[in-house]
Amino acid sequence: MQLRINNVRIALAADTGLREAAARKLGLKKQDIAGVKVLRRAVDARRKNNIVINYHLLAEVDAPARLVNRLLRDKDVMRFEAAKPIAPVLGSEKMAARPIVIGAGPAGLVAALELARYGYKPLLLERGKKIAARVDDVQRFWQKGEFNPESNVQFGEGGAGTFSDGKLTTRVNDPVMNDILQLFVNSGAPEEILWEQKPHVGTDKLRAMVTGLNRMICELGGEIRFEAKVSDFIIEGNAVKGVVLAGGERLYAPAVILACGHSARDTYAMLAERKIAVQPKAFAIGVRIEHPQDLIDRAQYGEFAGHPKLGAADYALVWHNSESTRTAYSFCMCPGGQVVGAASETGGVVVNGMSMYKRDSGVANSALVVNVTPEDFGTNALDGVEFQRRWERLAFKFGGGSYYAPAQNFKTFLDGTAPSTEALVKPSCLPGITACSLDNVLPDYVTATLRGGIQAFGQRLKGYDDGGALLTGVETRTSAPLRIMRGEDKESVSHKGLYPCGEGAGYAGGIMSAALDGYHVARAVMARFAPF
User: Is the pLDDT of residue 387 over 90?
Assistant: First the structure.
């Protein structure tokens, strides 16, 4: 009999195996359990003197039916039923040409793969380069400051997530999530993402995973074209009939999935010019903050800091300013990672965080950002883009005009004294940093909220507000500054045949939620059309 057993708790200091812990939970002997498999693993560090690993397990139990029925009275015990794949609903409308997917980030990749699995033979168009060439371009930028506006941290195979921590956490509760995680494992991601509460793959393993996804798309009849920038749509009446590439090539399609990513500003401008329905939305801007990783480990795990079962500690922090509508919060925290330049336009500085799979750099970094709304930047479609661009250009100017990022330690930021980059850590930002007052490159309401937030966070994590914490700006690409409006059928509310998708369309916020949106948008296209 296969049983799912939730909340099997093992103290970190205890030398207890999973079978033994499962037997104890059920009130059975160890030999009554033939084997166990981890379904979920989470760290409970609320009591730092007694950190516990909490497991959900699949157990093979050898017990009579009467005993099993008694066990099932426990709310943490239930019969195990493997989730069944959700069969798609296939439409009947005939396709005169294959569907087009724009953008090879998580949303576009999963959308294209789902279409390919069911015979739709999608054409996936990516403006940037394949990963190997893209990595070379990004390394040249980080090492020499040579910037390529079409091949960078934002554009290319895998999307912006390729140069990130590769976190796969999401607040979206979707029954398809496990299927997506299994897909990622089949494509090259580490198997533990299937059960870890906070799964991540790291930028190094993410690149292999993306290559695996692309290979699967092609093996199933799809096609991928790189350095294929979409510059316009073919529009007849109020319907998108295809796309125009930058070189003038016209490609017709009955369905176009737009998964352009949150930094495709030229695409946003084209949408506005073409009167496709978009609206500005709230996002956040701020800085990256760096601490020694062992400082964060000690603050989170106390005497167990550095324990091999715990790994590098992360954090999630939020502070609401009671005197304003502003909130400071951590975002995209990267344990054992580094800060990197992430520009996508000439003459602008943007920073982001990145980690390798092992998270072993010794430096913890996170975005610390403050919410901004259309009330701050305007209600026209592209006002949020211009707001981002303004602060990025100021960061470029005050950073010295060479893509170095403006930075200062928290002490000088708090006191308003001459900026210093003397810090608890060796600055990790590539290509480099320049000592600069961050008040020059961010709105005053953002810097004021950051000062209050960091001090408040110091009350929760010991040492967090140490004056030597290093702040680097500017972080402006937390999410899309607009939303491409769509209906419940995932189709644009203004133009038939166009299916806005993923983070760039304003419907996701990270790798996992973008992948899930790609899946559901592909299913919406399939519900209308018969396979090609």
Answer: yes
